[in-house]
């Protein structure tokens, strides 16, 4: 009998330990004040042993109806049938668990099998047979009345909690037939029928109690397994049985519960972590479980929740909790404690207490001998492994976002909560990395200061200084404890880590100096590989750094970063002098490594590097030359990148910063920084600043340095047209010879060739410039290939030279090649690309015939102006060159008014240009020359007289030596001389005009060669000036007419070949030839009329009927028709009137060209038509 009672007690104890009350029937607990979610903040709970009786689950009576009362109680088959019925009822009544993975499903199946096989087959079968037999025997021996009364009353009281007594009784009575309910005293009749009914009822009562107890055990087991995903629960299951209906089963006594903390109402989330803990917990075994994670992440709260759930599941499990106080006092449970005991060790940040002492006598050694399960809380995996194997570590990461939002909302004051949106709450939680400690601290700051979440977000996102202020003391509202503060020791104890792991702290601090986010591994390539493995193992084991293997980067936990920032930024004591010096050395080392790995100009992936660089040098002193040079190198690389992108202004800023941090005197290795600055000043046309920097540049740093300075000074002289470009040409030729005779890289030699070619072009020696430019292009193609950037530069330079040399079609091919290449390398908005577009537009304007072609060139130039203005400046010489080209296009289209205004505007800006002598700079003189040409066409030769004379004088003084002999000419000067001759001829000063046109022709042939288009233009105008000086009669007249006609025909042939038959230069030559034929008279006048008609139609087709040259050609045709006897006089008058009306319409009735047209019409009428 005693064995049977022990079995019943064991079953009873097991059923109680596995029972979890239905939340619908469990009274709601009293609300508790919110607790700080920290390891230290939980209030202490007095240690006591509960003696309250354990409540038994509500009995389910329905299953008992399936067991016939007549079944043989000694036969175990009905009991097994009872079990099967119970299981079927549970399957039908219990809610199905949510689908889970195979591992959990297998675990549940194993658990149910174990419960059925062990708890049911062994305990239930034996308990049912023995308990029923004893109950029946004792019931027969004693009085039926006593047996029935005690069986009914005691069974209900023992099997159900007090709250369910009435319900059970009611349900039991409901099961009885109605005739039995109205029977006044069913026990008074000792008839055997009554006894059988009572025995049946006793059997039913016992079976019902057993059935419901079994159902409760199995149901609770399944619910617990499904809810917590526990791999192994304590294997127990037994049936509550009574030896007699009169025996009362004593309530089991709960095991010791030494728990200093109450259950936290703030606990949220951590479902997977709890599941892992239950999976690692093996009651009765010598288990070791490690709960590890960053400080403030919630290890203590997780362990508290785990302990309370274990208590609910197994009240018989002794539970102990050791804090720092117990560890310091040595109050540790005996190693001989029960094997099913659970011991939680929480050393907080004082893990050293466990390791203190001699080997085998340390606390950690004592813990190894503990018979039960030890749960160790630690802030690093390394500490956890002091007691726990790696596979039994439960690593705690950041709290789930949804749980973080719930925690934050629960701790947020009502005022802040009312004005906060869900998205703001979520954003704050994400910003503080879903750290429970940080969430609660932020909520407290918001509640104490009265700020709302919008204000907090604004402040927090302003930068690290505001983050530190928000987490620090805010008088007079917020006074966070340093030990629990997020930026104190609450997350990471910087000083302790530094003192414990001094050699590993270097890596952590260098990550901090680099900003701590996505730091490339390459920066730490100087570390010993094995040391790096060890460092990462330790650092990651402390949960301080996350490694991104796919991107090869490291990132410090944001709260750890703030903690280090706070530690470095706070007032340091004198005793920390060694640490401060050590940090400076670490900083210097990482700056050097950062500088060495900083991306070069070709890399576009530099956003992180730029942000990191700004952080790296912010707030730190460059206390030695090594740091200064490293920082200057970074600035230089950034400058080179901006230059490659065509962002010259930004590149110059970086170059200036680089130079400003360089030591003085500048080391030889860093002279390139100054050279970059000078180059950028040249590209930005800041020539005065360029001159100033060159004056301060020392050429005593070696031959290369001296050659570079000489080259840049020559470029500056070339830009200012010093000494008629002679100095620049001579210097560049000397440098080219020196480069070819030295061991300089070929790229430097080709660059010297470019310099010589450009200087010769500016000098006006186009043929010589073309020769050396072609050579540079060929050499670069052979050495670097056709797609090399410098090869495209050679194409660009050669195109410029060829355009000036009159090789228009060839120039267009080369500039198109350069443009395509540069656009593919630099993009469409780079100044180099745009410069090639400007040259192309100039070539298109030179060869333009139709209005559409002029429009194409103008559109290209307008685009260039917009893009250059954004990259350079409105007054940059290249922008002004575009405007000057547009003025020429307006002139070619006959828009004299627009051409005049644009030329005047450009001239005014150029007179204030960046050169040393802007008023007489060649670019300024170009604007003056173009303005003089516009004035001649728009208002006549008299209006252009003074300006044309001044421009010729200034160009001669600036561009030549003024001798007007030999090769002492410049193409620009000759253009002004050519124009001056036309003006003088128009003013009737034919002799002087003839002298100047002859000189211009001779100079152009000498400088440009016999095949240049400008030579043929001068030739045809020379013929026209000669026509104005023809003798009225005599053989000399005929000879001159023949000579002039020969000149015109030769010029017309060559211009037609160069530009085509309808180009304005070609038509001008044809007009001069037609005028000559008209002058010859006789049969030649018919040829003149025919030629005038062709010219008129050509102009009309190309530039339209209202173009001034079209109207002039129409008037000349009318004049030729008037002089012809075969022509219709009325048709001639009609053409004259149309011409005059066209001028009036296009330029106004008061315009010079309109008045001149009417005067010529009147003259023609008087001469021919009125005769």
- Spatial arrangement of strands, main beta sheet: 1-3-4-5-2-6
Report mean pLDDT, rounded to a whole number: 81
Radius of gyration using CA atoms only:
52 Å
Number of helices: 50
Instruction: Estimate the helix proportion, in percent.
Output: 55-70%
Number of strands: 9
Through-space gap between termini:
162 Å
Percent range for β-strand residues? under 5%
Which residues form runs of ≥5 with pLDDT under 50? 1-76, 89-101, 155-195, 206-250
Taking the sheet with the most strands, its summary is: 6 strands, parallel
Whole-number tally of structural domains:
8
Look at the helices and sheets and give the structural class: mainly alpha
Question: Looking at the structure, what is the overall shape?
Answer: elongated
InterPro entries: NLR-like (IPR053137), P-loop_NTPase (IPR027417), TPR-like_helical_dom_sf (IPR011990)
Region (Disordered): 1-78
Biased composition (Acidic residues): 29-42, 63-78
Protein name: Related to kinesin light chain
